Amino acid sequence: MTRETAIRWVAKPIVFTSALLPLVWLAWVVTTSDLGPKGPLGANPIEYVNRHLGDWAIRFLLIALAVTPFSGVTGWTQLVRFRRMLGLYAFFYVCLHMSSYVGLDQFFDWRAIWKDIVKRNYITVGMLTFVMLLPLAITSTKGMVKRLGGKRWTKLHRLVYPAGIAACFHFYMMRKGVQLEPIVYALICAALLGYRIAAHLKKKAARTTKGAAVLVAADASRDRGKAGAPAR
Predict the structure, then answer these.
(1) Domain ranges of the chain
(2) What percentage of the chain has pLDDT greater than the value 90?
(3) Of 61, 95, 148, 218, which is least packed with CB atoms within 10 Å of its CB?
């Protein structure tokens, strides 16, 4: 079995199926367990469902952001081929998270939802995160890359960085008081973005050094040409 075959027919199906497990587990618990206060979903099952989906949304977003740094550190370049799938799963869970809020929590009361967005900062930030991720999901196909052009597509998909920051803020603001889990997620996000900043600066410095070396070599060649030229 070639590496290409293994990735396409073994690794990708495993990742795809594994990414569905949090949703499958939630569906199993909801349909088979007691939804009362003593059940596994607690006193507020709707809140539990909403938070469970939101937790996995931010986890998949951070996992997708971790692909490039992990690939750069380990040299496993094939990991990049899973990045789009993981990013789309992050958006999938974001949509489920938002749908549970709109449908289960607010019962499609759009006036109440708008008041919530304006009044509660963490919901405002959460909706902003969704708005930033939406064009990334829409333009994730190879056809959209060709249609937009590589440079424009790359610039657009840099929205994932502020989206990751906003998601961490949303998570932190949603929890009451200072809790460890949102802080850990924020630190992970900071480390992943910090890696990209460091890599960009290193690449920029290398280009500057290379450019300076070319200029020095050109000057040296010109000086040698002048020294070897016959006097008139």
Answers:
(1) 3-210
(2) 74
(3) 218
